[in-house]
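Escalation from tier 1.

The customer reports that the assembly of two entities below gives different structure tokens on two consecutive runs. Tier 1 could not reproduce it. I'm attaching the input and our single run for tier 2 to review.
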Amino acid sequence: MRNIKLTIEYDGKNFPGWQSQPGKVSIQTEIERAIEEVTGEKVELIASGRTDAGVHALGQVANFHTNTNIEINKIPYAINSKLSKSIVVKKAEEVEERFHARYNCKLKTYRYIINHAPFPSALNRYREYHMPYELDFEAMQRAAQYFEGEHDFKAFKASGGNAKKTTVRTLTKCSVEKDGDRIIIELTGNGFLYNMVRIISGTILDVGLGKIEADKIPEIIESGVREKAGKTLPPHGLYLVSVDYQNEK
Amino acid sequence: MRNIKLTIEYDGKNFPGWQSQPGKVSIQTEIERAIEEVTGEKVELIASGRTDAGVHALGQVANFHTNTNIEINKIPYAINSKLSKSIVVKKAEEVEERFHARYNCKLKTYRYIINHAPFPSALNRYREYHMPYELDFEAMQRAAQYFEGEHDFKAFKASGGNAKKTTVRTLTKCSVEKDGDRIIIELTGNGFLYNMVRIISGTILDVGLGKIEADKIPEIIESGVREKAGKTLPPHGLYLVSVDYQNEK
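Tier 1 run:
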């Protein structure tokens, strides 16, 4: 059987998230339906991980097994022709039988966009979080650095995950940059706990607002207490940017 | 009476355009309704010019006369509170009684965005025109230069306008730039004929596609024949960026 790896962009606005949910059309079920229409096969699409309702992806990765003989470079066009324009397959690659989009994932990069203009943007209202109040940008950058490295991120995890599993993760990057009126928070890591990016972004924002001191971040991480971290920012400012498998193709 | 100048951003996607139309909720009627709810007065909102269905604005300008005593810096918040998030008043300024957003307009800047990536963007599907085919970027830049200056733009005007009025306009800028996968066409001028930006952008794109020679542009302008110019690009890639009144405040 062939094993096909897809790279997918989607607008999370009108979906209940990646994963199939009873009675709701999820991103996963939409793409599985499109693949079935194209190949005639019912497939299971394995993503690098779920994204929540409203969260966007520039480069989600997923794989499926198939007996179709459609040429690899024609697969994106074939699947896209059966999808609404809010989901776009941007790449298809032939991968080894044993490749698994979730298990083999080495690094993921997420982006959170904060619009710091006095008024929200009409055009980007579903694409960023608006924060008009004064922010200490340097303090936000300083706070971000403390998240890099291997830490127990228990304080930055929403309830609802599996409490027995380890909450230790390694972030290779946690940066805060300006792009005009926008503040872009970017995180790269080997794994992310439930709502971890939105809670870390909310904590960095709370540092900018002066609610949390930048140099208290190590103490908050150490505490493992969710209440000491900042608020969970809303999903519509969050993007899964890319998923890296290194030499695992 | 006070005369208030507003600067407005809007997402054109769900509107039939700026202007009031029977049975349809236009951008103008939406803002006039919001102003009425805020001031208790029926006002006429005078824009720098109309925008068509689907066209976006980053900085449309409009003015209205009012007896309200709401502080000028509170006016955007008051109006925005009565509007859907697809229209945002970003600035309000007190201007002279005689200021008229259409008659006093000196320069307007429009932007047309072409996505030149192999696949369309799911997130920007209502914000740009997708063109995956090979383009001669330098030829597009060369073509653009010919549009600058004072010309009779009759060949770049859709039918439907007033045929008796002059079709001579001056473009102070017509540029083609790259921004990653995007090609950005920007025009600044003292006035624009009906669909002029979309036809000039379509002509520049046809030069990129090799359908029209860059150095034939002066001849096409000279001819005044619409059929010699390129196609009209769709509205969803077009943005009214700004309107300039110089010292006319």
